[in-house]
Every structure is written in structure tokens, then in C-alpha cells.
Write a structure and sequence with these properties.
There is one protein chain. The protein has about 90 residues and is mostly helical. Helices cover about 75% and strands about 0% of the residues. The protein has helices at about 10-20, 25-30, 30-40, 45-50, 60-85. Helix 3 crosses helix 4 (about 45-50). The chain is elongated. The termini are far apart.
Length: about 90
């Protein structure tokens, strides 16, 4: 939806979203301060993004990103094992 421009964000929030899409590890393993620094926004903006997306806090948003990366790594690992059996 974001890529199709169906979801609009205020400029500062969009900056964080774009960083997160390019580098999800930034959100998954960073703090609101480190994400803010990497995206050139304030830590408050990072926390506001979490609320804008419907999360209670930044920690909940970070958990979602961690779970996404974990599932992605598990798929890659599983596909590598399948190929080695052939």
C-alpha cells in the first residue's frame, strides 16, 4: 500500500517509513533514538509513527519488525536446506 501511494504519511513520518522499508533491521534492532538519528528526524517522530500505524508504542512496532526478519530468515534457511537435499 505504501509503495502504491495508497497510504499517505506526513513528511517526517514518511522519512522513517522509507528508511524502515529499505533497512528493516534499523527498526528491528534499534532504539527510537538510533532510528531517529539514522532517519534525520526526532525520536518523538519515531514514536509518533508507531502510534500513527496503530501500535501502542515503539517497542510493539519493533517487535513486528523483529518477527518479520525472523520469519524471513527462517524461509531462507528452509529453502537452502531443501535445495541441498536435491
Amino acid at each position: 500500500m505504501i509503495a502504491l501511494r495508497q497510504l499517505e504519511f506526513p513528511d517526517q513520518l514518511e522519512r522513517v517509513v522509507r528508511c524502515a522499508l529499505v533497512t528493516p533491521e534499523l527498526i528491528a534492532f534499534g532504539s527510537s533514538n538510533s532510528v531517529a538519528l539514522a532517519c534525520s528526524v526526532s525520536p518523538t517522530t519515531v514514536v509518533r509513527l508507531a502510534g500513527f500505524l496503530g501500535f501502542q508504542n515503539f517497542r510493539d512496532l519493533r517487535t513486528l519488525f523483529r518477527e518479520h526478519l525472523w520469519r524471513r530468515a527462517a524461509r531462507v534457511s528452509a529453502s537452502g536446506r531443501s535445495e541441498s537435499r536435491i
